[in-house]
Amino acid sequence: MVKKQFAVIGLGRFGSSVATYLAKMGYDVLAVDESEERVQDVAHAVTHAVSADSTDEEALRAIGVRNFDVVVVAIGQDIQASILTTLILKDMGVPYIIVKAQNELHGKVLSKIGADKVVFPERDMGLRVAHHLISPNILEHIELSPEFSIVEMRAPDEMIGKNLKQLDIRAKYNCNVLAVKQGEQMNITPHADEPLAAGDVLVIVGRNDQLIRLEQAYAEA
Asked: Do residues 197 and 159 both lie within one domain?
C-alpha cells in the first residue's frame, strides 16, 4: 500500500511539530515556510524542506504541493495569508486540506472556502488544561463534536474497590464507560461486577455538560 504524502506549510511550533512527528512515523513530508531559518530548523527531520511564499501560486506549483495527498496549513498569526493559501490550494486541486485556525470566525471562513478540516490547537490545549484543573484525574480529553467528548479519567480514591454497577455512571451522569485501562492492558468489555483498582483509567464518552458534572463530582468528593 502506498503511504500518503504530506506537506506542512508554516513551521511555527504547531507546524514543525506536525511535520516532524509525521516524518518520525515514516511518511514523506515536505515542510514549507517563508523563513529560511525555520526551514533549516526542521530540514534534518523531514523528507524535504523549502523556503517559499505560500500566497504565491507559482511558488507552490514550482515545489509540487498539488502532488501531495494532504496539505496542512499551519500558518501562525497571519490570518490573511492562511485564508489565501487555503484558497490557492483548493483551486490547485489538493485532495485534502487541514488548516489551523486562530479563532471561531477564522475557522468559519476556512470551512466556507473549502478547508476539509479546521483545527484549533490553542483552544484545544486550553480545553485540556481547563479539564485538568477541574479534575487532576482527567488524563486526556478528546472533543468528538461541539456536544460530545471522550475523557480518560484515572479512577479516584472514591472509586477504588467499587465496580461499575455500584458507580452507576450511566444513570447518574448519562455517560458511558467504553473501556477500562489497567496498566498497558485495555479492557474494552469491562465486567460490571469487577471492582476498580488503584491506577485504573476509565475511558468515558458523553455530552460535554454531563462529563463536566462527572469531573466536578469526583474533584469535589
From this structure: yes
